[in-house]
Amino acid sequence: MDEPQQRRLGVLFSHVSGSSQPRSDLGLKAHAVSASAQPLLKGKVAIITGSGRGLGAAAANLFAEHGARLVVTDLDVAKADEVAAGIRSRGGEAISLAGDVTAEEFPARCVKAAVEAFGTIDILINNAGFTWDGMIHRITPKQWDAMLAVHCTAPFRLIQAAAPVMREAAKKELDERGKATQRCIINVSSTSGTHGNAGQANYATAKAGVVGLTKTVAREWGSFNIRCNAIAYGFIATRLTADKGSSTISVGGEKVKLGIPGGEAMASAAAEMLIPLKRIGTPDEAAGAMLLLASPYASFISGQTLEVTGGAYI
Question: Could you tell me which SUPFAM superfamilies the record lists for this protein (predicted)?
Fold first, then answer.
C-alpha cells in the first residue's frame, strides 16, 4: 500500500474510530476477545437449542467466551456433551441436555435444567432446525408438519415454558424495585422465510412464522424489559448448505437428507452471483450476529428481523 493510500485509509478510520492511524487488522475474528475487553454477557444464563454443532455450537462457544453460562442442547447427546465439556475445559460454565425440541416434554425439561444449574434464564435462543425440501406439488403432509413443528411450535412451547423464569420474574422485579433485569429471546429465521425460496414452501412458511412469533413476543413482553428479535440467515457454511445427503437426520423413523444439490460448489457459485461479499458466511460470523442482539448494546432493539446475508437481497 503506497503512502497516499495509507493516508486516505487513516482519514477513513478517523471518522469511525477517532484515530488518525491506518489499521491493518481488517480481518475480524468472531472469537477475538482481548484481555482488556469487558465480557458482554458476564454472568448471564443462556439456552441455545441445536448447539451441538454448526452455528449453534459456534454461538455457545462465543457466548461462553463473553462470560455467559450455557445450557447446550442438541438431538445428538454426544455432540451436546462435547460442546459443554469444551466450554468447561476453558474455564467456562456449561451443562448439556440431549433431546428433541419437538417433543412435548422437552421445553419444561430444558427450563428446569437451566434453573437447577444456574438459577435463572436471561437469554433464550431458538436455533434448532433442519430442512426437508420438496416442490410444492410434491411436499407430503409429513414434510409440511415437520417444518412447522420444529421451527414454529417448538420455539413457541419453549418461550411459553420459560415465561415463569423470564416474564413472571421480570414482573416481580418491577413490583419490588420498579426495574426489571434485561432479558432477551432470539429466534432463528431464514431468508427463505423473508423472501421465499423454490423447493422450500414448507421451510419458508415455517420461517416466516418465526418472524410473526418474534414480533408478537416483542409486543407482549416488551414492558417487562424482555427483547425479542429474529435473525434471518442467508448462506452459512453448515450441514444445511453442504452437499445433499452428506448428513442425515431421522424424523419419525424416516431418514431425511440434509444439504443442497452441489453443496459447497453450488453455494460458492450462488455467492459469486448474489452476495456482494462474494462468499458464504461462517458459523463464527453467524454467531456474532447472535452476540450482537444478546448484548447490552442492543438494549433498544426489539421486534426486528436482522438479515445476515453478506449483502444479498439488498
Answer: NAD(P)-binding Rossmann-fold domains
